[in-house]
Design goal:
globular, 11 helices, mainly alpha, 2 strands, two-stranded antiparallel ribbon
């Protein structure tokens, strides 16, 4: 009975994480890891393994809906996945070397920086830019449109190579921290490459599953993925991500930004505190 109650609580918490992850493009991992470590006292390595499995579920659940609606940019996502996959393999290798307190502290710092950048951009203009796209973006046909209540709106793409470099760092953090690294992916596409916020979040959701899958095999080989823990987490995140995907298409970008900032700032503070005190 106690195991059943624990599974139910894990499912409900993961349901919330999946919904928020789909709305913000974070993938749910940044919520799940602190929830499992701080709330359920799960060992950090096993929490990271369960998070990676859930990230794949989030991507599978939300990305299909976003592609169907016309929000995700598949060309951008597939190009940037080259960098994130290579970074994820390196990060997964390092996870068995670095102390858990270091990983938690890095996790928290990444979240706090992401929250700061998101807060800076909370009133960012969503109007399409008149500047020409990056020549590389034009050559790779990355420009596109996204649906609005007034009809499809075109957008342009800037600083492709800078975004590619940041995606390598995002992949490294994904493998190291057991997350989809959606925070950095959203920021790279939104702030550096100049994509509309909804395009950034939905393309991030499309990408995070591939990034997580690249490092999940390493975690599995080291025994860090526990099926009894991963199953309720994966189911909750999958259902939550599908619910979040339905809400996102109608939500205002400014509110999504504030949700993004608030969630990751709170979790960042908690993870830095636990990492510095060595309570993991």
């Amino acid at each position: 009975m106690r195991e059943l109650e624990l599974s139910l609580l894990l499912f409900l918490g993961s349901l919330l994480a999946g919904g928020v992850g789909a709305l913000t493009g974070l993938g749910g991992g940044v919520i799940l890891v602190p929830m499992l470590v701080l709330g359920f006292k799960v060992d950090l390595h096993y929490a990271l393994g369960a998070s990676l499995v859930s990230v794949i579920a989030t991507s599978s659940g939300a990305a299909s809906a976003y592609v169907r609606e016309g929000f995700s940019n598949l060309r951008i996502g597939m190009f940037l996945e080259i960098a994130t996959t290579l970074g994820a393999l390196l990060g997964a290798y390092l996870v068995g070397i670095l102390p858990k307190s270091w990983i938690a502290t890095v996790f928290g710092l990444v979240l706090m920086y992401s929250a700061y950048q998101g807060f800076q951009d909370r009133h960012k203009d969503e109007e399409p830019s008149t500047k020409p796209s990056d020549p590389l973006a034009v050559r790779l046909r990355m420009e596109g449109t996204y649906p609005t209540s007034q009809g499809p709106v075109p957008y342009r793409v800037y600083r492709v190579l800078a975004g590619f470099g940041l995606m390598g760092i995002a992949g490294l953090l994904s493998g190291l921290l057991g997350i989809g690294s959606g925070a950095l992916k959203v920021l790279a596409m939104d702030r550096v490459m100049g994509l509309p916020y909804k395009v950034s979040t939905t393309t991030s959701n499309f990408m995070i599953g591939v990034t997580a899958a690249a490092s999940a095999g390493v975690y599995l080989s080291r025994g860090y993925i526990d099926p009894l823990l991963a199953m309720p987490v994966m189911l909750g995140v999958l259902i939550g991500s599908l619910m979040g995907a339905r809400i996102l298409t109608r939500a205002a970008p400014a509110r999504l930004r504030l949700l993004f900032v608030g969630v990751i700032a709170l979790l960042g503070v908690q993870m830095i505190y636990q990492g510095l005190r060595g309570g993991l």
